[in-house]
Design a protein that fits this description.
The protein is an all-beta fold. It has 2 domains: about 10-155, Lipocalin; about 165-275, Lipocalin. Helices cover about 0% and strands about 55% of the residues. It has 1 helix and 23 strands. The protein has an 8-stranded antiparallel beta barrel with strand order 3-4-5-6-7-10-11-12. The chain has an 8-stranded antiparallel beta barrel with strand order 13-15-16-17-18-21-22-23. It is elongated.
């Protein structure tokens, strides 16, 4: 924890809208064991929050400047490809503090009229590592938020882990003579650590819109999503029925670089491209 003389500075990350993360402490140079424990890439846990999805924190030693360095990046959906904004700052690391030494920011055009932004301000951040070194917690009592939990990205807990899929994914709309159906898939975990998939069907006919959804238990492997049960729900409207339905099956998937798009197929079927929903969308 920081002393009463510590100064508070905001650490700001944003994509289209801004998330203010004030943290406080005071640090000193640390190019030894303390620094090495942080080296690598970290992502927020749990995923599924549209305001933190796409964030990555990288700690490394920059040989050119002979200093430790922190790079905060955000991956945002773009019109034709993923967009990445990055901000890097020299840092000093001690046993329980990260001292950010300079301001840095980046701004890139993103999907539609949105902007993918990252900003880092000078700050002194409290941190603690889990016993196994796979979890990193940054805290600031009285801040908003006052705690940020990160998970180390490695071959076992990176882009092929269940957490990489958590959040809301949007499929292309289906237009028929009867109605338009927009489908969203939400991957999440329960408090019992059971991975689940929610399918949300949004059906529109004329001026009427109705929503139907179902939930199914799933297991997620590095390239497969196994739907464990058949579930279906019909939601009636005035002159049509909106159906959400998931059949027990094995989906094969692959994530695009940056994790903002995913191809999903069943058997030899043509892959369907799902896009991670940006901040501010329906969850």
């Amino acid at each position: 924890m920081s002393s009463g003389k510590s100064q508070r500075f905001p650490l700001l990350f944003a994509c289209a809208c801004l998330l203010l993360l004030p943290l406080a402490s005071h640090g000193q140079t640390g190019t030894g064991t303390s620094s090495q424990k942080l080296y690598g890439t970290w992502y927020p846990y749990h995923l599924g929050n549209p305001y933190t999805d796409g964030l990555r924190y990288e700690f490394r030693y920059n040989a050119a400047t002979a200093t430790d360095e922190m790079t905060v990046s955000r991956v945002c959906p773009g019109d034709n490809r993923a967009v990445i904004a990055k901000a890097s700052s020299s840092i000093e690391i001690s046993e329980n503090t990260i001292h950010v030494l300079k301001a840095a920011s980046d701004s890139e055009p993103a999907q539609g009229n949105s902007v993918c932004q990252i900003s880092v301000q000078p700050a002194a951040l409290n941190y603690s590592l889990s016993e196994d070194g796979g979890g990193l917690t940054i805290t600031n009592p009285g801040g908003s938020p006052d705690i940020v939990e990160l998970t180390r990205q490695n071959p076992d807990s990176g882009p092929t882990s269940p957490q990489a899929l958590y959040g809301t994914w949007v499929s292309p709309p289906l237009n028929t003579k009867e109605m338009q159906v927009q489908t969203r898939f939400v991957f999440y975990s329960t408090v019992e650590h059971q991975d689940k998939l929610r399918q949300i069907s949004i059906c529109t006919k004329g001026n009427d819109t109705v929503v139907s959804h179902v939930d199914s238990n799933v297991t997620i492997d590095k390239d497969r999503i196994t739907i464990l049960e058949n579930v279906s729900h019909e939601q009636p409207a005035r002159n049509f029925i909106c159906t959400a339905s998931i059949a027990a099956a094995t989906w094969h998937y692959s994530l695009a670089p940056g994790g903002v798009a995913m191809d999903v197929s069943i058997g030899n079927s043509k892959p369907v491209k799902l896009t991670r929903e940006a901040a501010g969308g329906l969850n």
